[in-house]
Specification:
2 copies of one chain form a homodimer.
Chain A lengths: L5 H4 L5 H9 L5 E2 L12 H9 L3 H8 L8 H13 L8 E5 L2 H12 L5 E6 L3 H9 L3 E8 L2 E2 L1 H7 L6 E4 L13 H11 L6 E4 L18 H4 L6 E6 L11 E5 L1 H14 L5 H12 L2 H27 L5 E2 L7 E5 L6 H11 L1 E2 L1 E2 L12 E5 L5 H22 L1
Parallel strand pairs in A: 1-12, 3-4, 3-6, 6-7, 7-8
Antiparallel strand pairs in A: 2-9, 4-5, 8-9, 10-11, 11-14, 13-14
Chain lengths: ~400, ~400
C-alpha cells in the first residue's frame, strides 16, 4: 500500500543480525561478534575524565558541536594522525558517528545507482551494506595473504568503477595485513586513475608487534597522490564502540561535499563523547590503553591459534594474524560452512560464515573467528567444539 | 577531475552556516541559533547519573547497542510516549542519532530523485536539506496562525507526493501551533490518501501553558489511520543536543525498512548517551527538568514580546508563541530582510532571514528570532537594535 523508494525496496535483513542475538546468549561461546570485550573497556579512565571536566566542558558536552567535529578533538586527532605519517596539513578532518558513517558518506559522494564499486573479497559487511544502500554494483577482488590481487584489480578498472574500498591493515574478516610491496603495487596502479580510494584503518592500532610498522603504514601516508585517498579510522576498537566516533581525513574538495552530507545526516556527532574522546587522547590515556589492550588481544590470538593447531583437522588452513580481531579459516575442501555452523550452535559455539563477507553472498568455504571478545578459557572450549564437528563431518563424507 | 554522484554534485553550503560562526561571537547578541542555552543544561543531574551507574551500565555505555536502541531506554521511552496518548502498542520505536537522522531515514524510505515532497512553508531547514539530499522536489504549503492551509494541501495532492512532513506543535520557524480543528482537517484530508506522514514533534514538551493540551496533541495520537504517520521526537530540547538522540515511533512495515537504513548509516546511536538518557527519563529527572526549563523559556518569550512591543514599529506583525523556541516576525511591507540583517549585524545583533526556511529559498519578508539562547538582559538590547534599524529603514523609504 505504501510505495518505498528504489533504494530501500529490496533491502533485506542480513543473516548476521539473527546470529547476533544468538551470539550474545550467555551459554553460547561466541566467536561471531566484531566487538571489544566488555571486561577490557577503560572504565576507570572514563570516570576520571568525566569527573575532571570543567563546567564549560560539561556545557559543551550537551550542546551542538560544529558539523565537522568538536574543535579540541579535531586538534588532538590531527597531532595523533601526524605521528602516523599522515598528511594532516594538506588535508582536512571530519569526526564521524562511527567510521561506518564515514563509509556511508563516501559512498554517497560517488555512487549513483548501478555504478560499480570495487572492494576486496571478502570485505567488511557494514561497507557492503552501505554500498548496497546506494544501489552500487559491488565487484569484489580476491585477496591472498599479502593483500588484493593486483592483476584482478587492473582488470576491474575496465568496469569504470566509481570508488575503491580497501582495508589494508588487519583486515576484517581476512585477518591479514597487506605487505609493503603490495601496498606500493596497489598505489602504482591506482595513481594512474582518478578513482577515489577509501582506506579503512579501523584496526591499524592493534598491531601485535609494535615495531613492525611496514605491515600497517597507511596507503595515504605512502602514496605520491594521496589526495585520491580518504583515510578513515575509528575509536570503536581503541576506546569503545558505544561512543560512536570515527574520523575521515580527506582532501579539501572531498571534505566540502562530505561536510554537507553529514549536515543532513545528523548535524554533528555526539558532543558528549567527543569531549570524552578529546580528553582520553590529549591526556595520553588512549596511548597507554592501546599499548595494554593490544597485548591482551595478541594473547587471545596466540591462544586461539594454539587451540586450532590442537583441535582443528590439519586440512583447515589459516594465516596467523599480526593484529586486529579476526582469524579467517579455510575449511577442508567440500565442507559446508552453514552445515558446520548449525552443528556447532547445537554444541554451544558460534561464528560467522564466509559468505556473509562476500559481496555477492556466495559461499566460499571460509569462516570468521573473532578472538577479541572471548576470554582464554572459553576460547579453548569453543575451538574444540568447532574442531570436533569438523572432524565428524570429514569422517561422514568419506 | 573526480566525479561526484548526482545526489551531491549540486549541494551547496547554506547561508545559515556562515551566520552561525558570527552568531557565536561573544560580542554579538544572537537570536539566530535554534539551540538551548548552555546555562540551562541539567549538569548536576548528569553528574549524579554518571556517578551512580553500575559497572554493567558503564560497560554497556561503551559497547555497541542494538541498531534500534538500548533496550532499557526503549522501554522507558515507550512508557513516556504512552502517557502522551501515542499508540505505542501497535507501533515500534527506534532510537535515532538526533531527530534529524530520523527525518533523513524517512526521506530515504520514500523519496526517489524528482519525487514531490510536501512540507509546510516555512519549514525546518534540516528537513529541507535532507529532502534535497535525495533529490526530492519540495513543494511548500503556506501556513497561517492555525496551521497549514488545507485547501492548498488538497491541491498539492494532485502532484502525487511521496511524503508529507509537518511540525504541528510549536513550529520551527513559525513559532505557532496547529489548532485542534486544523489538526483534524489535515488528518481528514490525508487519511483518504496513502501518503506517508512524518510528524516532527521536537518542541512538543515546551508548552508555556501545560494545561492547554489541545495545542499539542500529536497527530499520531489523534488519527484514525495512525499507521500512516511516523512520529519523531528529540532529546535535544529536553536534555541536550550534544547527546544526539531522538526517536521515531512507526508502524511495523516502516520500522523494518528504517532499521535496515539505520544499520548502514551508523550501526547504532551512541550507547553512552542512551544509558544517560535512560536514567534521566526513568528517574523522573527529565520531567522535573522540563517543568523547570519551560518556565524559563516562557519568561524569555514574554520578555521578547514585551521588547518587540516597545521597540519594533507597529507595522511589524507576529503571533505570540505558546511554546517552543521561536518568534516569527513579518516585517513592514517592502522591507528587505537581508538589508535589515546587514544593518543589525553592524550594530551587534543577529537573526535568521525568512528565506532560509522557504523550500525554494524565496525572500518572504519574515525573520526568525530565537529566544531560547539569550538571557533577558540581552534580549532587550538586541530587540532594540533591530527595532531601531527597522524604523530607520522605514523613514528612508518614505
Amino acid at each position: 500500500m505504501y510505495v518505498f523508494s528504489d533504494s530501500v525496496k529490496d533491502l533485506r535483513s542480513s543473516a548476521i543480525r539473527d546470529l547476533m542475538s544468538l551470539a550474545t546468549h550467555p551459554d553460547m561461546i561466541s566467536f561471531a561478534g566484531g566487538m571489544p570485550d566488555n571486561e577490557l573497556f577503560p572504565l576507570e579512565d572514563v570516570g576520571e575524565i568525566f569527573n575532571s571536566l570543567s563546567r564549560r566542558e560539561q556545557q559543551a558536552a550537551l550542546q551542538y558541536a560544529p558539523t565537522t567535529g568538536y574543535p579540541p578533538l579535531l586538534q588532538e586527532l590531527e597531532k595523533w594522525l601526524r605521528k602516523k605519517g599522515l598528511p594532516v596539513d594538506t588535508n582536512r578532518l571530519i569526526v564521524t558517528t562511527g567510521s561506518l558513517q564515514g563509509i556511508n558518506i563516501f559512498a554517497k559522494l560517488f555512487v549513483n545507482p548501478n555504478d560499480v564499486v570495487l572492494t576486496e573479497n571478502p570485505s567488511f559487511i557494514g561497507a557492503l551494506s552501505a554500498f548496497n544502500s546506494y544501489l552500487g554494483k559491488i565487484h569484489g577482488i580476491p585477496m591472498d595473504e599479502e593483500g588484493m590481487n593486483i592483476e584482478k584489480l587492473k582488470e576491474a578498472l575496465s568496469l569504470n568503477p566509481k570508488l575503491l574500498y580497501v582495508m589494508p591493515t588487519f583486515h576484517n574478516p581476512a585477518g591479514t595485513s597487506y605487505s609493503l610491496e603490495r601496498r606500493k603495487q596497489l598505489l602504482a596502479v591506482m595513481n594512474e586513475t582518478s578513482v577515489p580510494i577509501l582506506e579503512d584503518d579501523a584496526y591499524g592500532d592493534l598491531a601485535f608487534n609494535a615495531e613492525d610498522t611496514a605491515l600497517r603504514v597507511p596507503l595515504k601516508a605512502l602514496s605520491e597522490k594521496e589526495s585520491q585517498i580518504c583515510y578513515s579510522g575509528s575509536f570503536s576498537k581503541i576506546f569503545g564502540p558505544g561512543i560512536r566516533l570515527g574520523w575521515m581525513l580527506l582532501s579539501d574538495d572531498f571534505y566540502r561535499k562530505a561536510e554537507l552530507c553529514k549536515q543532513s545526516f545528523d548535524a554533528c556527532s555526539p558532543t558528549f563523547t567527543q569531549v570524552l574522546a578529546y580528553r582520553f587522547l590529549a591526556s595520553g590515556k588512549l596511548d597507554r590503553y592501546v599499548a595494554w589492550v593490544r597485548v591482551i588481544y595478541k594473547q587471545r590470538a596466540d591462544y586461539m591459534v594454539d587451540a586450532i593447531m590442537r583441535y582443528f583437522p590439519e586440512e583447515a588452513k589459516f594465516v596467523r594474524p599480526q593484529g586486529g580481531f579476526y582469524l579467517w579459516v579455510k575449511l577442508p575442501d567440500g565442507m559446508d560452512e552453514q552445515e558446520l555452523l548449525k552443528a556447532t550452535i547445537a554444541d554451544g559455539a558460534v561464528f560467522v560464515v564466509g559468505s556473509t563477507f562476500d559481496p555477492s553472498g556466495t559461499s566460499n568455504g571460509y569462516i570468521r573467528l573473532s578472538f577479541s571478545n572471548t576470554p582464554e578459557e572459553k576460547i579453548e572450549r569453543g575451538i574444540r567444539i568447532i574442531g570436533d564437528r569438523m572432524k565428524q563431518m570429514m569422517k561422514k563424507s568419506l
